[in-house]
Amino acid sequence: MKIFLLCSTLLAATSVAGENSVVRTTLILVEGAAGEADYGTKFQHQTDSWQKAAGQAGAEILTLPTVSPEAKPGENDRSRLEKILTDIPKEGPAPLWIILIGHGTWDGKEARFNLEGPDLAATDLATWLRPFKRPLTVINTSSSSAPFIPLLAGPNRTIVTATRSGNERNYARFGDNLALTLTDPAADYDQDGSVSVLEWFLRASSLTAGFYQADGRLLTEHALIDDNGDGKGTPSEWFRGLRATSKAKDNTPVDGSYAQRTFLTPDTATQTMTPAQLGRRDEWEAKISALRLQKSALPEAEYYQKLEDLLRKLAELYP
């Protein structure tokens, strides 16, 4: 396994005139055990693509090698990852990203991500991430990865998996296609100049489905995204444009709204916002998404008046 610690620095003006606050996005890139040389090549290509995207985002890249002179007896890839998550800050506005590239397994009870040495169990990662209150994005591109969702989901978290169940055990091509999508202009669905996690997810899912269709094969993987904290996940087929068309029975907001506001490289306006402004932006956008779900139940005039009020509040945050 290779673990890369990427610290992307975004500058945002604070409310104190003449001062700047630094918001650091930490991206941990984990390349798992290849098993076979061909897979190793694929995983390396994915890793290279993520490194390139991070570089374009102005990221500082720190590499933690598998073997180092400072390695302690009994240290392995799993313990190194645990140490990274133990040492980094648990709270604050700075986002944390974790990208898992490799193979996965499912024994009917526990999903695991394959590492050199002891594998990473979904329950392991859930335990290590439990103290974190900062915004979190976890993308698991391995097979049998779906069981990670219910264990990792929560407020201010976006979880993406390559499969919809642990039983989808074949090699997942979603990771290959996601790597292609990172620098693909076609992924900018709303043409706003920045590509969100949701847009990456939808584009990579489309490319994956296209591969199986062109090859005349049955689709054996169905990626999921969860950003509303209910731990259920939503497939790309449920989206129309950038909005999911389904609605949970308990009125939980549908997936997609938070992921649509999550970027590795935010647009210029977002980069200049303070953490407080970003919080208000997320609040207004969440309320807009919730209002849209109520459209059919509200009188037309009332709906559009409420929508206009929220859009005005949102617009005030932008220069």
Please give the structural blueprint.
Layout: E1 2-13, E2 20-31, H1 37-56, E3 59-64, H2 77-87, E4 96-101, E5 104-106, E6 111-113, E7 120-121, H3 122-129, E8 136-140, H4 148-152, E9 157-161, H5 174-181, H6 197-214, E10 224-226, E11 234-235, E12 239-240, E13 243-244, H7 268-271, H8 275-293, H9 300-315
Parallel strand pairs: 2-4, 4-8, 8-9
Antiparallel strand pairs: 1-2, 1-3, 5-6, 6-7, 9-10, 10-11, 12-13
Helix pairs in contact: 1-5, 5-6, 8-9
Written account of the structure:
About 6% of the residues have low confidence. The strands form 3 sheets. This protein has an 8-stranded mixed beta sheet, with helices on both faces. Strands 5-6-7 form a 3-stranded antiparallel beta sheet. A two-stranded antiparallel sheet has the order 12-13. Helices cover 34% and strands 20% of the residues. Strand 12 and strand 13 form a beta hairpin. The chain contains 9 helices and 13 strands. It is α+β, with helices and mostly antiparallel strands. It is globular and about 65 Å long.
Radius of gyration: 20 Å
The assigned CATH architecture of the largest domain is 3-Layer(aba) Sandwich
Taken together, the total number of domains comes to 2
Low-confidence stretches: 9-20, 64-69
Tally of DSSP β-strands: 13
Global outline: globular
Please give the count of helices: 9
Order of SSEs: EEHEHEEEEHEHEHHEEEEHHH
Distance between the termini: 44 Å
Widest sheet: strand order? Answer: 3-1-2-4-8-9-10-11
Helical content band: 25-40%
* Structural class assignment: alpha+beta
CATH topology term of the largest domain = Rossmann fold
Largest sheet: 8 strands, mixed
Strand content: 15-25%
Mind telling me the CATH class of the largest domain? Alpha Beta
Write down the overall mean pLDDT. Answer: 84
